[in-house]
Amino acid sequence: MKAFLFLRDLIDLFYPNICPACDKPMQHAEKHFCLYCELQLPKTNFVSTDDNSVYKLFVGRVPIDAADAWLYFVKKGMVQKLMHSLKYKGNEALGEYLGYLYGLDLKSNKLLNLPECICAVPLHPDKLKTRGFNQAAAIARGMAKALEIPFLDHFILRKENAESQTRKKRFDRWASSVQSYQINPELSCPFQRVALVDDVITTGSTLEICATLLKEIGIKKVQVFALCQAIN
Ligand SMILES: [Zn+2]
After folding, report:
1. Which of 130, 140, 216, 231 has the most CB atoms around its CB within 10 Å?
2. Confidence band for 161, pLDDT divided at 50, 70 and 90
3. How far is the CA of 94 from the centre of ligand 1 (A)?
4. Considering its fold, how many domains does the chain have in total?
């Protein structure tokens, strides 16, 4: 055992695991990012306040039961670095871990009626091909684990766009975006309070389209959760 620990320390000395948020070497127990960064996560606490800028995004667009973004995303900030590692360095496990931490925070929130199941905003098929996984699904899977509820993988599907989006007028672009999403006809959802998860929220358009689809199949309460909200 001692020899193993010595060898492990030796390997760590030459090939340390680097925290994707602060670029410093991590300890053995720190798997995805360091504890110091975990304690510094810029949480919004929107879900516990009346001044919830994510909820306000959906007012007058689609009826939402609850909405939240867990972290603030600022340029060159810690969250941007974490998201970069998740999306562009194939760090799917980091997404699941962040989702798990987010889920634990939601679970301890007394003001929120917790969802009964969770689904994710789908990724464009081209991006899925290059990235190999859907980062929103990774986050949703981690949240489902913490909340101890089912994750409905591939519940919402995204199709390829036949025509170039840039050549269309604004309304046509919107209509075509709506048509490129659909509920998976092979799956059914026996729950009435469903959480919809995305990685980053900016205008909320994608979440609006997906939430509308869930309402159209009769889901009574749709909740919208993003891991982070981009702010200027
Ligand atoms: Zn760190």
Report:
1. 140
2. low
3. 13
4. 1
What spacing in Å lies between the alpha carbon of 24 and ligand 1's midpoint?
A: 6
Q: How many CB atoms lie within 10 A of CB 128?
A: 14
175-200 pLDDT, tens digit per residue, is: 778 889 999 999 999 999 999 999 99
Q: Is the pLDDT of residue 169 over 80?
A: no
Tell me the CATH number at 73: 3.40.50.2020
- What burial letters (b/e) apply to 134-170, b meaning 16+ CB within 10 Å? bbbbbbbbbbbbbbebebbeebbbbeebeeeeeeeee
Tell me if 105 is assigned to some domain: yes
Distance 11 CA to ligand 1 centre (A): 20
Say how many Å lie between the CA of residue 38 and the centre of ligand 1: 7
For residue 23, the CA-to-ligand 1 centroid distance in Å is 6
- Report the separation in Å between the CA atom of 78 and the middle of ligand 1, taken as the mean of its atom positions: 9
Does residue 7 fall inside a structural domain? no
- Cα 16 to ligand 1 centroid, rounded to whole Å: 13
Tell me which H or E stretch contains 229: strand 221-230
d(CA 115, CA 101): 16
| Residue 189 falls inside a structural domain | yes
pLDDT of 54 reads 94
Is the residue at 107 inside a domain? Answer: yes
What is the value of pTM for the model shown? 0.90
Distance from residue 46's CA to the centre of ligand 1 (Å): 24
Residue 83 Cα to ligand 1 middle (Å): 13
